[in-house]
Amino acid sequence: MKYRKERLDRGIKARCEDIFALSSYREMLYLSLPRVLPVIILLILPLLKGVIGMYWEKVLMITCVIALLALSWDLMASVGLISLGQALFFGAGAYITGFLNHTFKLPPILTIPLGTLGGALFCTLLLLPVLRLRGVYFAIVTLTLPLLLARFIETTKILGGTEGMSALSPLPNIWVEMYVPVLALLLCLFGFRRLINEDYGLVLQGIRDNDRAVMSGAINIYWFKAQAVFISGVAGAFAGAFMTHYNQVVGMAAFAMDYSILPLTAAVLGGVGTFAGPTIGAFILMPLSEVLRAVGTLRVVFYSAILIICVVGLPEGVFHYLRRKYHQLERMVEVG
Amino acid sequence: MQDKTLLKVELLNKNFGGVAAVVRVSFFLQEGELLGIIGPNGSGKTTLVNLLTGFVRPDSGKVIYRGRDITGKMPYKIAELGVARTFQMVKPFYQLSAFKNLIIPLYSSRVKRLRGGKYGDRDDVAIDLLEDVGFERDSSVPYKVASSLPHGYLKRLELARCLALRPDLLILDELFSGMSMSEVASTLPIIEKLSSEGLSIIMVEHRLKELFRIAHRVIALNFGSKIADGSTRQVMENEAVKAAYLGSEDES
Question: Which of A80, A177, A249, B116 has a CA 20 to 30 Å removed from the CA of A313?
Fold first, then answer.
């Protein structure tokens, strides 16, 4: 008696095709739940600070920051640019924000937007000559740029040198501290998903899959790549700008490799190209890392083991797995 | 046929590390002409197309399109000017459906300019284009993912992708290669119609019978150099061309 695994769309999924999704509340709930529930949870979590405690609220904040960097990574990957240096965006946003606040005494309400846009612009201009490079060569340059900038700051002693700039203005109140990253994350998540599903996103994916064909269609692929880098830069630089005022200090640690590797790992864990995947990946990795802190030095072993199991067991990413489970049921059927 | 030169190619040269791919090739194309380019494998036909469309920079020589020097310009700039090309190795967007493949060229600024900026009906435009190249309109074929389409359809999708740009010059690089007899028979009238409507076409082809039926003029390449240039009759009867294809007969 031989069996094979069969996957079928769930009844409700099949009933939800096209316009029929509006036929009953149950169908509409089925479709909207995976989108609405995370939003509601994320918006409520900061309100529960009495229950959860400030420590976990801080974890939520750093998770949102890493998720923003992961989204930024994913957008660049969607146009075919694999980056090993998201820390470049983070550090650029962080330093410009810190500089504006430290030197010109501008308030956070001005420095954060200026740092975000300035950081994105600076990184785009810096990466402009490298956009023509293919695959791994682009990755190597992105890997080295944050390190290069950190050393540059160290040796020239500008922008505070090794000590950095401290005693920066704090954020107005605790609600700003908690809600700004959450709202920024939701904005980027849904914004990027909408972008990639529009025709503009189709052009970006075309550039990733087959850039010669896109070029022969009278589209300037380098201009589009630059735009994608800028938009990614906005998300990444915002993360850095926010953290500068949250910590009230900025230093060379803003270019730390953690800010490159963690988002990349989160994206691969969650599912590359889906935007929801990197977000989920960040929300798995960061709390997990905090929980394992109690284990002491063995933490790295557990952490790596979990990562390896996830990547080997779910190569397509956690998000694809969850979506498949949600939409399809599996059963064994007889063969022959 | 107006007497106006659309494309002038002067002494194009390209070496690939010691291999002379294109050697001092010159020719011109009038508006509305259908020019065939023939030659045995390795004679430099595809390199010539790449040189004309900006995918390869020539070592020397000039390509002048409508009086403008487009030598070595970026491919998307040349396409923007109205020069569309197919690829010998078909390059569709495999994960997209057939009509979505056309959305990307329809997104270009050239199309926006020519169509007057109205973008809302791009789906209809895409389906119409597919119907023009022979996809059955009312079937599910235009909506099938490109990776599931047979080769002949992919070739016609390439053609549709070019036509989406509303080109003034269409360069077809071995469009008929890999197509069955029936597919060639159904695609040939489309090319004929485009030519009769005044579109200038350059066709690189191996299938000489079909090419000679519709070409106004033909040039022949061998080992990178032009060995013949004239009407189809002249080139068909040219000794050098015959020798290039069949090999010179050694009667000793």
Answer: A80
Taking CA atoms, what residue in A is nearest to B104? A203
For A68, residues 6+ apart whose C-beta sits below 8 A from its C-beta are A181, A184, A185, A188, A235, A236, A238, A239
Interface of A with B in 167-186 (CB under 8 A): none
Which residue type is seen at A325?
Answer: K
> Using CA atoms, how far apart are residues A72 and A76, in angstroms rounded to an integer?
7
Specify whether the CB–CB gap between B109 and B140 falls below 8 A: no
* DSSP 8-class letter at A3: E
* Residue B231: partners with Cβ closer than 8 Å, 6 or more residues away: B216, B217, B218
The CA-atom distances, in angstroms, between B83 and each of A331, B52, B237 are 54, 9, 31
Taking only residues 7 to 46 of chain B, the set having a beta carbon closer than 8 angstroms to any beta carbon of chain A reads none
Decide if A221 touches B, using CB distance below 8 A: yes
**Is B116 a residue whose pLDDT tops 80?**
no
Record: contact B95-A209, CB cut-off 8 A? yes
- For the entire predicted model, the pTM comes to 0.89
**Do A170 and A245 meet the contact criterion of CB atoms below 8 Å apart?**
yes
Nearest Cα of chain B lies from the Cα of A97 at a distance, in angstroms, of 36
E strand map for A291-327: none
d(CA A71, CA B142) in angstroms, rounded, equals 33
Does the CB of B100 have a partner CB in chain A at under 8 Å? yes
CB B119 within 8 A of CB B166: no
The chain B residue lying nearest A224, using CA atoms, is: B108
Task: Give A147-151's long-range contacts (Cβ < 8 A, gap of 24+).
Answer: A147/A255, A147/A257, A149/A88, A149/A91, A149/A92, A149/A255, A150/A91, A150/A252, A150/A255
Chain B contact for A212 (CB, 8 A cutoff): yes
pLDDT digits (tens, 9 = 90+) for B44-67: 899 999 999 999 999 999 999 998
ipTM confidence score: 0.85
| Chain A residues near residue B55 by CB distance under 8 angstroms | 212
- Residue in chain B closest to A217 (alpha carbons) equals B105
From residue A7, how far is each of A324, A327, A333, B95 by CA, in Å? 9, 10, 10, 21
Note whether B134 and B186 are within 8 A (CB).
Answer: yes
Residues paired with residue B36 on neighbouring β-strands, in sequence order: B203, B218
Q: For B219, phi and psi rounded to 5 degrees?
A: -120, 150
In angstroms, the CA A70 to CA A138 distance is 18
pLDDT higher than 80, residue A87:
yes
Could you give the CA distance from residue A18 to residue A169 in angstroms, rounded to a whole number? Answer: 51
Within 8 A of A199 by CB-CB distance, chain B residues are 103, 107, 122
Please report the pLDDT score of residue B1 as a whole number. Answer: 42
Is the Cβ–Cβ distance between B203 and B37 less than 8 Å? yes
